[in-house]
């Protein structure tokens, strides 16, 4: 709701002595100036997982995108602060909350009440508007359960779940996404039931949920959706990583599967890291050795790639995938050597 502008000074009785009129005017002018110069309101309560809405807490990789997303908010925020100072008791300027992974920025339109937020198992009554066609989220009021249901496996589902976990009851917010050219999408959290944090779950419950996520991830991978599969494997790993070491052996399979997804998604650095986790537990894991070799080749680390692929072929000499990949690495190495030799000839010839 727009707030009509209010004059910071107001009219004065001309019969007042000039000195008193000047003193009162200066006091109000100073007060208005001080209000306009006040810093932004403190951010709302964030997730209980060490999440900070401060832009500095975001990774440098996503900093530029997030700043671009909120560039249009800053002017409105300044105006809202002026109105706040001129009319006591009016609504505060909307807050911004930055998702830690840089996937979206949340602009709080109406603040919720209380401190509790949805957790695993919370049934949320949600009002959604502006989501693009194909997001599988119908407009209007709907019920979503955090951590349960096929709605979570799509890109928009993951974003909605992250947003809900940061909202209080009654909160209304807009979401700005990097690369999304359409108007902001809007979510309202009408109500939710009490859920549980991961540390409140028994080990058997965590393992059961992880198996469900793994099974769904495998379905998505076979259906040609490595991004959706990676989200499922990642959620399963987050559940199992909270168990005491060494943890269940299923972690090895999840890291290996996640590496396969990341190779298809063009993320060789992450793929190599997940293969490292597998090989720490099982040094002879052939799939992890092969995938790490492919990842190292993509990163330009040809010697490391050659070493991993040769280990695979030493155990399985007929592995055609490893043979082909090693052949590519050898050809690329020869090209690099030829380029280096040509550069040296130019330098010393």
Describe the structure.
The chain is α+β, with helices and mostly antiparallel strands. It has two domains: 96-196, Chitinase A, domain 3, CATH 3.10.50.40; 199-342, Tetratricopeptide repeat domain (Serine Threonine Protein Phosphatase 5, Tetratricopeptide repeat, Alpha Horseshoe), CATH 1.25.40. It has eleven helices and six strands. Strands 1-2-5-6-3-4 form a six-stranded antiparallel beta sheet, with helices on one face. The longest helix is centred in the last third of the chain and has 29 residues, at 320-348.
The CATH level-2 architecture of the largest domain is identified as Alpha Horseshoe
Radius of gyration: 28 Å
CATH homologous superfamily heading of the largest domain:
Tetratricopeptide repeat domain
Topology-level CATH name of the largest domain: Serine Threonine Protein Phosphatase 5, Tetratricopeptide repeat
Mean pLDDT: 75
- Separate helix tally: 11
Secondary-structure-based class equals alpha+beta
* CATH secondary-structure class of the largest domain: Mainly Alpha
User: What characterizes the major β-sheet?
Assistant: 6 strands, antiparallel
Distance between the termini: 76 Å
Order of helices and strands: HHHEEEEHEEHHHHHHH
Q: Approximately how much helix is present in the residues?
A: 40-55%
How are the strands ordered across the major sheet? 1-2-5-6-3-4
What is the number of domains? Answer: 2
Total strands: 6
Summarize the entry for a quick read:
The chain has 349 residues and is of the alpha+beta class. It is built from 11 helices and 6 strands.
